[in-house]
Amino acid sequence: MDAEMRVLDLLGLQGLIDTLRARGYAVVGPTVRDGAIVHAPIATIDDLPRGWGDDQDAAHYRLRRRADDALFGFAAGAQSPKPVLFPAEELIWRGRRTGEEFTVNEDGAERAGDEGPYALLGVRSCDLHALAIHDVVLLGRDHVDVRYAARRAGAFVVAVTCTAPGGTCFCASMGTGPRPDAGYDLALTELLDDGPHRFLVEVGTPRGEEVLAEVPTTSAPAHDVRAADDAVAWSVAHMGRTLDTDGIKEVLYANAESPRWDDVASLCLACTNCTLVCPTCFCTSVEDVADLTGDVAERRRVWDSCFSEDFSYIHGGAIRPEIRSRYRQWITHKLASWQDQFGMSGCVGCGRCITWCPAAIDITAEAAALRWTPQPAAGRS
Amino acid sequence: MSMVEHLHRAGTSPETLADPMRPRRYRIAHTRQDTRDTFTLELEPTEGPPLAYRPGQFTMLDAFGVGEVPISISGDPARGGPLEQTIRDVGVVTHALITAPVGTLLGVRGPFGTSWDVSLGAGGDVVFIAGGIGFPPLRPALLELISERDRYGRVVLLYGVRTPEDIIFGDELRSWAHDHGIVVGVTVDNGQHAWRGKVGLVTQLIPRAGFDPRNTTAFVCGPEVMMRFSAAALADRGVRPSRIRMSMERNMKCGVGLCGHCQLRELFVCVDGPVLTYDRLAPLLSSREL
């Protein structure tokens, strides 16, 4: 949207939160809990991680005090907004059995939007792209996840330019950041210089413009627009990692029998951490829970992971009993087959899978290694 | 495309979206024991019309409070009668399904997936290759073919099972052979005393089946290893890989491409399959554990 850029100070940011809450949004944003940046309800700017930064590397995440009062001075938190719109566990339906009959008397879809609508505050560009990916996966095909649709439909997005990329970040490689380019109602870039603590605001939708009109802002001077551009340039130059996406699909498909999978498997614990923190992983399972009589039962949708052996189980055994084939499935899906399925990469370069892997397995390093590993002849022995 | 655009393309708003995870209720009208471990359920909808489906499609069948499993439809698509589903007793859910008393309500979602499209074989020879519990999903395709038998040339059904006692639809096999000119070859892994038929792999029946490979369409369903060897044997004889159609089995939790369990590299077997052509599958089946 072509609208004039505005500037918001700290009081203005509080005003934005107040306005969203007054409009009925459940505002969810970053906060510090248990030594990590996580998502939680936000009522005031004091709930935000003021003055907190982070250090991230493979298998390493530590919060650290910054020298300034930045509210968004950290990289990707422990979770993307994925659990807000696509919870780790939710009701599909609940039913009751009487003799041979059963009735479905509660449908989770009817309640899915009840907690919201949500306003997601502080969404990074990587996670914004992940949201757009979920929109395609869960809403853009023949069958739709109606519970996600209910939560997503009303969600208001306040994106934030990432000005403190971490050691495991590579959104610049994936073309997904660090500056939000689409999919937001409002986008902020935090400006920390000799002037007052302030945010450059870009408007993405008429709804965003409407909300912003209720908040005290000033017209953005040219030097603030330039300062935001400089912050983005700095951020691009400080990505901790890179991933060469050129021909990556062909690289992965050609390496189905690479000896490299054995090397990864010797480290991988199949703990599923990477899939849990990944903002695009969407695999789920269905669980049935009945009471002791078996007459009241509910079906739940729960996150699942291609790293668990059960994931591929059919009568006779798992399709992927070996960890090597599970890791191959995950990285091949993320970087290659996702392209065939959805016309886009399944990786947004947020780096969480690297940070939160207890064995320090690095998707960027594995992709690079596969690119340079000699390919054995394809085919079964 | 924005989320709103996606919903508009689907022609709907979040409030009116149909939930593919919500089952319809069907009543068990009849349970027939086919073999010692295989049963066919006949299901009648409690409300609404009978399920319209195409041969090769499957449903997600739900035993209340126990769970849900993908089961192929084994009935006659042209006959509007009850929904027929043939189930082997291999796990908790399938056991609950086959032991449920007549009159019990089951949840049914579907039908899902691609179909055999048996009419692609019209004007030429047709080979059906079935292994074990892979036979029931082929039955609707055979029945569709039989309803227009004169559109097809030589029709061969090759069927491999563990033992003679495991033969499903045995009476029908005889009538298809006698009344409809279908060449039926049955082979068993283990033939005891009374068995006078063939013993061995179903692929061993292919060379003498007498079809014209250059003008043959094949429909294959059974354990993956059997399908892989059968398809390779057919291709070796000159059947075009694009005319070898196979029904794949993978773990399925949703049936609609959302849960991710059934992925075979870029394929979602539940929506891109289960029926897929060998030219598409061959590269994917050549890697172990893909």
UniProtKB/TrEMBL annotation, chain A:
<dbReference type="InterPro" id="IPR017900">
    <property type="entry name" value="4Fe4S_Fe_S_CS"/>
</dbReference>
<feature type="domain" description="4Fe-4S ferredoxin-type">
    <location>
        <begin position="257"/>
        <end position="289"/>
    </location>
</feature>
<keyword id="KW-0408">Iron</keyword>
<dbReference type="GO" id="GO:0051536">
    <property type="term" value="F:iron-sulfur cluster binding"/>
</dbReference>
<protein>
    <submittedName>
        <fullName>Sulfite reductase subunit A</fullName>
    </submittedName>
</protein>
<dbReference type="InterPro" id="IPR017896">
    <property type="entry name" value="4Fe4S_Fe-S-bd"/>
</dbReference>
<feature type="domain" description="4Fe-4S ferredoxin-type">
    <location>
        <begin position="338"/>
        <end position="366"/>
    </location>
</feature>
<keyword id="KW-0411">Iron-sulfur</keyword>
<dbReference type="GO" id="GO:0046872">
    <property type="term" value="F:metal ion binding"/>
</dbReference>
<keyword id="KW-0479">Metal-binding</keyword>
<dbReference type="Pfam" id="PF17179">
    <property type="entry name" value="Fer4_22"/>
</dbReference>
